[in-house]
Design a protein that fits this description.
- It contains ten helices and 18 strands.
- By secondary structure, it is an alpha+beta fold.
- The protein folds into two domains: 278 residues, Lipoprotein localisation LolA/LolB/LppX (outer membrane lipoprotein receptor (LolB), chain A); 99 residues, no CATH class.
- It has a twelve-stranded mixed sheet with strand order 7-8-9-10-11-1-2-3-4-5-6-12. The chain has a six-stranded antiparallel sheet with strand order 13-14-18-17-16-15.
- Helix 3 packs across helix 9.
- The longest helix is centred in the first third of the chain and has 10 residues.
- It is globular.
């Protein structure tokens, strides 16, 4: 099938695509920090009517799924080294006193690697629940109207925040912390937005996901230099809801992200699913109190971090080979470029040095830090270049800059 390139006239439809499908933007504070992923293999290739890539994308856009519940598994392999104690020393700090173990902004970052099992439920834009299941504990984030609750059974702590009910799903996304999209649907939307003439779309057969017949939409970069090989989205043949998302790297090997449902039900979840009341004696941290808590001694003040904020961001190129150029704070640039610090423990500096490769070019010298998907070049003059591109593309961008 000939690839289908997206057109500007359809971008509005795509942004609208399944606006509430799996609205596990589960809480503004937690939404964009996780990827939902299945470990179970697809079963069989169902015989479905032929469909073009254009028709399949339109099917996603027309989907009106607002209610569902299901079981999900997370499996993310960015190729990052084990952080260990040294990393904690190098990357820690800045933590406010009075932090809660139930705070979603810190807790859900644990899902950025490895495999995890989750349960999800959604009933429109104002009620969602996500639970991370462990062998002997459970962590849940619940959004119900004005209230956002997070509960950690291991520490018996809860975190509470207020959120305006009835806000548009897009508003939730804007308020969410930076990070990976939360659901297969959100991952799909992000890829479609990045389409244009840099991307090809095709239908790569059919599959079964969580017992449901699905079409496979394959998305590939047309540009060379990207670390992304292909993205495959399994789309429910009946509802148009994305059920599974798989991102494979250009370098081959296992998927970087394999995201989707192992069980899914499109019936309305029981109202009690989204109820939460702290038990007597449970420690509850209020978001407003957390924001006012003092920082640890030695933590940089916001005004001290002015350099390196998004105001200084410059995007080079477009599509899959876009590279973000950012000027870093002086101290951060020195550490990242391998210059070290008199105050940094030797083991922490050794850890940082082990992560990067030294490179040189017209720009001077610097260090490239790599994952299986994203590479970052930090130059000794304090600039950072980052993108889902090869090391050589980063060096070219730095030379041009």
């Amino acid at each position: 099938m000939a690839p289908y390139a997206s057109e500007d006239s359809e971008s509005g439809t795509r942004r609208k695509a399944v606006r509430y499908a799996v609205p596990v933007a589960v809480v503004g504070v937690a939404a964009a920090t996780i990827g939902l992923v299945p470990a179970l293999a697809d079963s069989g290739d169902p015989d479905l009517p032929d469909i073009t890539a254009r028709q399949l994308i339109e099917k996603i856009a027309k989907s009106d799924t607002e209610q569902l519940s299901g079981t999900v598994k997370i499996s993310t392999d960015l190729g990052l080294p084990s952080l260990g104690g040294a990393a904690g020393g190098a990357l820690g700090g800045g933590e406010k006193e009075g932090a809660s173990s139930a705070d979603p902004q810190s807790k859900l970052t644990e899902l950025a690697s490895g495999s995890h099992t989750l349960r999800v439920a959604a009933d429109g834009p104002d009620r969602q629940k996500l639970s991370v299941l462990d062998d002997a504990s459970e962590y849940s984030v619940i959004h119900n109207g004005d209230d956002v609750w997070a509960y950690d059974s291991k520490s018996n702590e809860a975190y509470h925040a207020k959120q305006k009910a009835g806000a548009d799903h897009g508003d939730h996304a804007k308020k969410a912390p930076k990070g990976a999209p939360a659901t297969p649907k959100e991952l799909t939307d992000a890829i479609l937005e990045a389409g244009g003439d840099t991307t090809s779309f095709s239908v790569d057969g059919t599959s079964q996901v969580a017992g449901r017949d699905a079409y496979r939409l394959q998305i590939k970069p047309k540009q060379s230099g990207s670390t992304v090989g292909a993205v495959t989205v399994a789309v429910d043949a009946k509802t148009g809801t994305p059920l599974k998302f798989t991102l494979t790297p250009a370098g081959g090997g296992a998927a970087v992200v394999d995201a989707g449902f192992t069980k899914v039900d499109f019936a309305k979840p029981a109202a009690s699913t989204f109820d939460f009341k702290p038990a007597k004696g449970m420690k509850v941290t209020e978001a407003d109190e957390r924001a006012k808590a003092p920082r640890h001694e030695g933590t940089a003040k916001p005004e001290e971090l002015k350099a390196g904020r998004l105001d200084d961001l410059n995007v080079i190129g477009k599509g899959w080979t876009s590279i973000a150029e950012l000027k870093l704070p002086k101290e951060a640039a020195g550490l990242a470029a391998g210059k070290g610090s008199a105050e940094m423990p030797a083991d922490a500096q050794k850890f940082l040095d082990s992560l990067g490769d030294k490179v040189k070019g017209k720009f001077g010298s610097g260090t490239v830090y790599s994952t299986r998907l994203v590479n970052v070049l930090v130059t000794e003059d304090g600039k950072a270049y980052a993108g889902a591109v090869t090391k050589s593309e980063l060096v070219k961008a730095a030379d041009a800059g």
